[in-house]
Amino acid sequence: MQELPFGQYGRLFAGVLLLGLLGGCLLWAGTTPDDPLSSTYPDEIEVTPSPESYVGEQVRLGGIVVETDPVVIATRRGGYGRFTAVGANDHLLNADGPLERGDRVTVVGPLDDESTLVAERVITGESSETRSMIVISFVGGLWVAGRFVRDWRFDRSTLAFVPRPKREPRSDRSHGAVTDSERGTRSGETVSDEGGRRD
Questions:
Q1: How, if at all, do strands 116-118 and 104-113 pair?
Q2: Mean pLDDT across the chain, nearest whole number?
Q3: Phi, psi (degrees; rounded to nearest 5) at 166
Q4: What is the Cα 94 distance to its own chain's centre?
């Protein structure tokens, strides 16, 4: 058997390192905002309770579209915390058509007054699309994990995953088939070592 250049522990270390990098990438992707340049702006949590304190400042408000002419977003559940987003449809970054009621959006721009936001960038994020993506990814992950568990096993002696031995097909006898030797015995004949038959 050919030996590995770094041995079993080298392979184990490489596997742990790759898993750590994968986990780090997942955490990094989950904490990265949609627009890194707008991450320092006050958001809806800070602005909604006292919007008068942020008039004239650049803000980043996320919410649900409750009216479309003009576009009005609500930053709180139940339609509260309403802000008119002036020019929202003209500054969409990831959508082709105009905004509709129920769309989840994030609007970046200066707060003109206590209830008016001049949109400079608008990012849409459909909650239904996000749910579909999560469900499809979860089902696909379960399928891959099931195939892996069924076809592979962990070998402690080599510290590696190895293919599981394939199951032997069932013999003809298990299916009720009659072999030639059984057929000859039943008819009163025996098979000699030389290949001839004797009564």
A1: antiparallel
A2: 79
A3: -75, 145
A4: 20
pLDDT tens readout for residues 147-159: 888 888 888 887 7
Phi and psi at 175, nearest 5°, equal -95, 5
CA 39 to CA 142: how far, in whole Å? 35
Task: Return the ∠ at Cα 120 (arms to 79 and 128), rounded to 5°.
Answer: 45
Q: Which two tokens stand for residue 48?
A: 């909604």
Q: Using CA atoms, how far apart are residues 181 and 178, in angstroms rounded to an integer?
A: 8
**Model confidence band, residue 57 (pLDDT cutoffs 50, 70, 90):** very high
Alpha helices in 74-197 (DSSP H): 127-151, 180-186
What amino acid is encoded at 7 in this protein?
Answer: G
CA distances from 139 to 117, 132, 135, 136, 143 (A): 41, 11, 6, 5, 6
